[in-house]
């Protein structure tokens, strides 16, 4: 996320207040974002009952909504402040629930270690606390995704999709699995570092 001092944007409100200036919240892009949130528990339910193929299809549909919602908002020129805040929140719900569900299964190749969950959850808690602090300080005027945040989201989606494909194909590339886990963790840490750097620069 990118934070801009409200002192530098005197005519602007904070992101939360500006939500109520949106002409409408019922835009195609916002509907796709909300669909992604709604599909998260569906994925968890399908994985719980070992409906692997259906879970994979729903996961891909949810991932596609992440790709399309921003494109639709720009195409129809209907970018909203609500959508700007909802989009990263939907990503967190969608991906964290998928990782948590996969971590509880007894399929060895689907194993998601506790240390990776700790990194992903810790990252989200840290970023949430930082965002809440800035909002309380009325310092948030505009929120945009940062590069490493986009990369981290993309890597997580690719990694989970790869796990499904390996499971369907009966592949068990242990070394690649470990490399994938490390890559997901590294991108998560980098995105948190970039976020922290932006916050520090905000107050420097």
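-> sequence recovered:
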């Amino acid at each position: 996320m990118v934070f801009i001092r409200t002192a530098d944007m005197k005519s602007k409100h904070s992101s939360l207040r500006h939500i109520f200036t949106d002409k409408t919240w019922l835009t195609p892009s916002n509907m796709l974002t909300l669909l992604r949130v709604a599909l998260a528990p569906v994925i968890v339910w399908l994985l719980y009952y070992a409906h692997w193929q259906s879970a994979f299809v729903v996961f891909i549909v949810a991932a596609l909504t992440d790709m399309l919602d921003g494109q639709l908002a720009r195409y129809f020129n209907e970018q909203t402040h609500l959508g700007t805040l909802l989009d990263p929140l939907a990503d967190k719900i969608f991906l964290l629930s998928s990782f948590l569900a996969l971590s509880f299964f007894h399929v060895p190749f689907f194993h998601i270690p506790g240390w990776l969950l700790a990194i992903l959850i810790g990252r989200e808690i840290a970023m949430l606390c930082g965002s809440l602090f800035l909002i309380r300080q009325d310092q948030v005027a505009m929120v945009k995704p940062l590069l490493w945040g986009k990369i981290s989201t993309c890597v997580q989606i690719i990694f989970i999709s790869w796990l499904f494909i390996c499971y369907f194909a009966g592949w068990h590339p242990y070394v690649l699995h470990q490399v994938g886990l490390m890559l997901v963790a590294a991108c998560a840490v980098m995105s948190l570092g970039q976020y922290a750097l932006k916050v520090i620069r905000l107050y420097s």
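Residues 174-203 form the longest helix (30 residues).
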